[in-house]
Design goal:
79 residues, alpha/beta, three-stranded parallel beta sheet, globular, Ribokinase-like, 3 strands, magnesium ion binding, transferase
Length: 79
Amino acid sequence: MQVDLLGSAQSAHALHLFHQHSPLVHCMTNDVVQTFTANTLLALGASPAMVIETEEASQFAAIASALLINVGTLTQPRA
């Protein structure tokens, strides 16, 4: 199987578009990496939001530009 990698020009263009659009990212992640995830997205030009409450999360999902899910340390209450 051959891996299809983006070239440097394609990567730079994708990053430029990402930064230009400044997406509002709904982050459903664990406590271990919340700060790292938020800081990384901020550095890339996104607007991260860690919305946990069920009712708020469903409302926020309707306005978010993107969804990031990390279930690395999923717990029963958050499942």
